Amino acid sequence: MKQLTKAEEEIMQVLWQLKKANVKDVIAQLPEPKPAYNTVSTIVRILETKGFVDYEKQGKGHVYFPIVQKQDYSNQSINTLVDNYFQGSFQSMVSFFVKKNDVDLKDMESILKEINKNNA
């Protein structure tokens, strides 16, 4: 699965939320200052080329929808992060975030419970 640029990921976040949308619907969900219609349209077409979205014809326009699930992309992104910055070690990643982000004991307990639940 290909990596997305920040702009592409922002558009995908909107499409994952809306499920189906035309370019105007996507723009309406984006923060100010709103990007130009042509900019968003171009990014959506790039996402189509990368295999992240597809469309169905609606009148004179297109309605776009994600074909890559958010969970699938999230999993791949996390694995890439761990591989590229933590030599493939989730332990190193967690240790880094604990040290750098002052994670409290309550948060760590919650994380450990979730890990144990998923491994059971």
Placed side by side, the strands forming the largest sheet appear as: 1-2
Distance between the termini: 29 Å
Rg measurement, Å: 18 Å
Unreliable residue runs: none
Q: What class would the helix/strand composition place it in?
A: mainly alpha
Q: Roughly what percent helix? A: 55-70%
What's the tally of helices? Answer: 6
Largest sheet, described in full? 2 strands, antiparallel
Please tally the β strands and state the result: 2
Name the helix and strand elements from N-terminus to C-terminus, one letter apiece. Answer: HHHEEHHH
Average pLDDT level: 91
- The coarse overall form would be elongated
Strand content: 5-15%
Describe the fold and architecture.
With 120 residues, this protein is mostly helical. The chain has six helices and two strands, in the order αααββααα. The protein has helices at 6-18, 23-29, 37-49, 70-86, 90-101, 105-119, and strands at 53-58, 61-66. The protein has a two-stranded antiparallel ribbon with strand order 1-2. The longest helix is centred in the middle third of the chain and has 17 residues, at 70-86. The two termini are 29 Å apart.
